[in-house]
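dumping this here so i dont lose it
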């Protein structure tokens, strides 16, 4: 007779898997993907190292799942910020503010998702989610073009450019400004104030999409 997994056993396995994912997510938020070894994740989850491999065949598979879950949360927050009715610029600014504020709030995790050097599989996943962001912004920009609130433009190109702008503008802040401390860049004055940083990125992005003149 074939073995049939009991509901209790199935629930236990799901709980252990969720605990491992939670531990991995918490550790990656502190150290990035490079600092999250399977041994350290197992220790934090209070399971044997071998147990991790029973649920994820290697570290790459576990990190990929963490990356997907974390990025999907962020995409959902930006999508929600774009939904409420109102002027295109107000909705766009709300989404940009959401993206930047959440990145600043979880700086190490945001750096891992946006800029940390990754293997090919994770890097492809990053490109996939950047495209999701680009499409969300492109849809709003196209709406603005069609109703006359924004100047005519290629909405997808503009949306992708906004995503790149936000990511690039945040990297120095998320990485701790280390690249601004080099002598060659001593004339730079990085915005360490969160409010000013959000305002600077938001105002630049709004100018970039070209609000239509009355």
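and the seq i came up w/
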């Amino acid at each position: 007779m074939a073995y049939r997994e009991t509901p209790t056993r199935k629930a236990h396995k799901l709980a252990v898997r969720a605990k491992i994912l939670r531990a991995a997510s918490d550790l990656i938020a502190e150290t990035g993907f490079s600092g999250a070894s399977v041994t350290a994740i197992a220790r934090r989850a209070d399971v044997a190292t071998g147990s991790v491999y029973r649920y994820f065949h290697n570290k790459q598979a576990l990190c990929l799942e963490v990356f997907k879950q974390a990025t999907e949360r962020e995409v959902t927050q930006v999508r929600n910020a774009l939904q409420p009715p109102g002027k295109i610029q107000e909705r766009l600014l709300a989404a940009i503010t959401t993206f930047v504020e959440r990145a600043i709030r979880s700086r190490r995790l945001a750096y891992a998702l946006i800029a940390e050097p990754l293997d090919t599989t994770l890097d492809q996943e990053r490109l996939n989610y950047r495209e999701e962001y680009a499409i969300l912004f492109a849809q709003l920009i196209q709406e603005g073009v069609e109703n006359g609130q924004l100047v005519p433009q290629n909405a997808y190109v503009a949306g992708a450019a906004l995503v790149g702008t936000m990511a690039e503008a945040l990297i120095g802040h998320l990485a701790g400004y280390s690249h601004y401390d080099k002598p060659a860049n001593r004339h730079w004055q990085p915005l360490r104030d969160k409010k000013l940083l959000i305002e600077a990125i938001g105002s630049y992005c709004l100018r970039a999409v070209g609000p239509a003149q009355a």
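The chain has two domains: 1-57, 67-208.
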